[in-house]
Design a protein that fits this description.
Distance between the termini: 40 Å
Structural class: mainly beta
Length: 120
């Protein structure tokens, strides 16, 4: 099994910053991609940013130039630096990890989510 745990959420004022972290552990042979999704109240879960093992990065248009995703391959960890946060960024942020487990079977795992609230 693969476990995914996020941390770093919280309450921040508009214009502020937060840094989310996500660590994957367990029976991991290799990781292909790690990413962040978010789900606002009453809305669908949507992609925020993703990064592959080769370093290819994709951002949602709504967060480009404000959010930065980075990854520590050795630690199976992904980060999301969020700057210039706005109330519309308020959501539960979920980390996702895709790869192969020690049986060389593909897996896709989600963390439980971390709440980010942007409010004055």
């Amino acid at each position: 099994q693969v476990q995914v745990v996020e941390s770093g959420g919280g309450l921040v004022q508009p214009g502020g910053s937060l840094r989310l972290s996500c660590a994957a552990s367990g029976s991991i042979f290799s990781i292909v991609a790690m990413g962040w999704y978010r789900q606002a109240p009453g809305k669908q879960r949507v992609l925020v940013a993703e990064i592959t093992s080769g370093g290819r990065i994709n951002y949602a248009d709504s967060v480009k130039d404000r959010f930065t995703i980075s990854r520590d391959n050795a630690q199976n960890t992904v980060y999301l630096q969020m700057n210039s946060l706005q109330p519309e960024d308020t959501a539960v942020y979920y980390c996702t990890v895709d790869g192969k487990d020690n049986r060389l079977i593909d897996f896709g795992s989600w963390g439980p989510g971390t709440q980010v609230t942007v409010s004055s």
